[in-house]
Structures are given as C-alpha cells and as structure tokens.
Amino acid sequence: MLTIGVCDDQPEQVRNLLRLLNDPVACNGDCRVIASVSPIEFLKRLEAEKPDLVFLDVNMDELDGIRLGEAIRARHPDAMIVYVTAFGQYALDAFRVRAFHYLLKP
Fold this sequence. Notes:
- Helices cover 37% and strands 25% of the residues.
- By secondary structure, it is α/β, with parallel strands linked by helices.
- The chain has a five-stranded parallel beta sheet, sandwiched between helices.
- The longest helix has 11 residues, at 11-21.
- The termini are far apart.
C-alpha cells in the first residue's frame, strides 16, 4: 500500500488533491492518504506514519513548505516530495531538499 501525504494551508487545494488521489484510476484502491491544512499537525502525524509520496505547498503560515520538507526528509529520507505551489521563486530551495518535482498551481 502506498502512503501519500498532502499538506496545504488552503483547504480547497487539499480537497482538489484528495479528489484526484481518490480517483480509482489514480491509486487503484491501494493508497492511504494523510492530509492536513496545518503543517505542524501534518508533521506530528508523520511521526507515526511513513509517507512514500508527499505533496506540499510552499507558502504556509505556521511553517513554510521548504522547512516542512526538510523536517520530513530528516525523518523519512526515502519519501518523494512534490511541491505544488503558486510561487516559482522557491524552486531552487525545493530542490535543495531533494524534491522529486516542483509544480506550479494555475
């Protein structure tokens, strides 16, 4: 089973990603999704969960996505991190965290 994490402080963005991930074609029923609008809560949940793939926003109030990615990388070095953000200027920072991909929101 694939464990996928989603963290964005915009509830609508979380819902959009969840809708895509819950599509039967996307995971074929073989995914467990952990989602949060709070980076602090999300990080706490990942203390007991090992994510395979994580989708993160960059610009969040409690903890920015780059620092969140660093904390995830420290605990789960094999997790694939994908940033989904409206801000292109953080791409180099994201790849320093060894992000798998950096997607710009429309």
